[in-house]
Amino acid sequence: MKTNLKICLALSLFGILLLIFLSSHLTPKEYDIMNITEKDMNNYIAISGQISNIRNFEESQFYILTITDNTGSITGTLNSYNLSINKTQEYLITGKITKYENETQINIGKIIENGY
Amino acid sequence: MVIELIIALLFGILIGTITGITPGIHINLVSAILLGISAFLLSIVSPLVLVVFLVSMAMTHTFVDYVPSIFLGAPDEENFLSILPGHEMLIKGEAYSAVVYTLYGSLSGLLIILIFSPIFFFFLPIIYPYAERIMPFILILACFFLIYFEKSSKLWAFLIFVISGLLGIATLNLPIKEPLLPLFTGLFGVSSLITSITKKQTIPDQKIKPLKEIKLPKTSFFKSIFASIIASPLCSFLPGMGSGQAAVIGSEVIGDLDRKEFLVLLGAINTIVTGLSFITLYTISKARTGVAVAIEEIIQLSIKDLIIITGVIFISGIISFFVTIFIAKYFAKFISKVNYQILSIIIILILFGVVFYFSGFLGFLAMLVSVCVGLTCIYAGVRRTHMMGSLLISTILYYIL
After folding, report:
1. pLDDT (tens digit, 9 = 90+) per residue, B233-258?
2. CATH number of the domain at A28-113, please?
């Protein structure tokens, strides 16, 4: 039993380190906004662009914002307690494509400054 | 219109039963498919008919999904904690009773929904901002009690809690669909099945007792129901919170619950969280479940719709109670006649396939790591609820960062 425990613990720790590495280094496929279609619904994608029109609802943690790249713009939604955005900065935004009231939008998972 | 609504309700019960007994198939999948074809469906039927279907399906699922979880060890995102006491009762020949205990909880949950609906309706918009602020502290306290009350080894309990937390953070940050599916399937489902195979566990004949003989002392019953009343409403409207977190908060607040009490608690919580999510959608416009999201897309709820939804919750719940009893009896007769090792291997392969299909290779990898963590917890001999760290730590970080 003790050997099994040691093996499982070692595999768990190695596996978790691997997953942490993958989660911080794997970026979903990057899209131009104009190329996002119905086929991408519920898929995770990445967009490089600038963020504007940040709206915060009733002092809550829910934000609606607009992401713009050279090809178009898309609405993004985000749950965050600390959102600090520089509107002139280029960001890499990753998230899941969804539809709300017939409009395609991205439920944002991560926002990182481009180049990092 | 009334006939259409009744047909939608019955069809919802049928589909909810199918999703409930099929390992890995979640109602969110059906909701997503329905949303995809909603434009066509709405040209045939009114939005309310689709909503009745969705609500009836969701409620039925919360009743039926304990059957595969308890008999087969195949969980879904809401009921994974039932595997643990459920499996213990299965190897004692009491799996049917285990399902009935969850049903008692679910039925009580229906009554609690009826009682809480008006309270939610009037007070939720007022208390929502305050509840959101204190939630991380409640969760931290629940984590503390979770580890503090471990009877075996507090050090191992803490280790498993932290390792699960890291696993949860890593998995939820992977670019995969349905990240909770590989996480819980590995932590609670496949790890239990592997242990059953290695122990060469045999399943005895299952006792099918009449309902009047499957009893719980009044104090035990009310203890479980009280715990569900404390925890479920919070988890119905707060982001990042679900049935799992509610079960941990409820059981830690009330103290030691035996396995029967815990099953009643789980049944009640699962039903209450699903039921109240529709009320939450109306009162504060927050969709906290996949089905609530689908309803939000289909209809702008009115008070009249809400009254109909409450009726559907109640009627579909009552019917689902009897449907689940029928299915559980069938499973109880069938389970001891099959070779449990082979059945476990088949279920593991099905779960592998489901995870690979929905979450891809990365999801599969996350599930393998989750299996290792699940087995570590089993071999360390501490309570498996410590693996709830996989959700609790992410939720706490979500609130405080």
Report:
1. 777 776 666 677 777 777 777 777 78
2. 2.40.50.140
For chain B, give every domain's residue range. Answer: 2-151+212-340
- Give the C-alpha separation, B283 to B299, whole Å: 14
Note which residues in 48-107 of chain B have CB less than 8 A from chain A. Answer: none
Nearest chain B Cα distance for residue A76, angstroms: 17
Distance to chain A for B368, nearest Cα, Å: 8
Contacts of B321 (CB under 8 A, 6+ apart): B63, B103, B106, B107
Please classify residue A103 by burial: count the beta carbons closer than 10 Å to its beta carbon, then call 0-12 exposed, 13-18 middle and 19+ buried: exposed
- Cβ contacts (< 8 Å) between B35 and chain A: which residues? 99
pTM of the model: 0.76
Q: Is A9 on the interface with B (CB under 8 A)?
A: yes
Q: Inter-chain contact B376–A23, Cβ cutoff 8 Å? A: no
pLDDT tens-digit readout, B196-215: 788 777 788 888 888 888 88
User: Are the Cβ atoms of A20 and B401 closer than 8 angstroms?
Assistant: no
- The label of the residue with tokens 């929502």 reads B128
Of B300, B298, B302, the residue nearest B49 (C-alpha): B298
